[in-house]
Specification:
This protein is mainly alpha-helical and 75 residues long. Helix content is 73%, strand content 0%.
């Protein structure tokens, strides 16, 4: 699975939003956004805020990955 930071970056690009726009929405510096893109995991409160800002359910993405890996383990 891709890291959560990678998933966020890809969604931001898909929506054709800039890093500056995203940083303003999250009320942080652009440098923090670039660090976020490198993260393997993040706080759930932050992920909830990001999901709302980008109107994308990253929790569902993670749940799908979990269910797929659980099915793979059964086989």
């Amino acid at each position: 699975m891709k890291s959560i930071g990678r998933l966020i970056k890809e969604e931001l690009e898909k929506q054709e939003r800039s890093v500056s726009w995203f940083a303003r929405k999250l009320a942080c510096d652009r440098s923090n956004i670039y660090r976020l893109f490198q993260k393997e995991s993040i706080d759930t409160n932050l992920l909830a805020r990001i999901s709302i800002i980008l109107k994308h359910d990253f929790f569902a993405d993670l749940s799908r990955y979990y269910l797929q890996s659980k099915e793979t383990d059964k086989q």
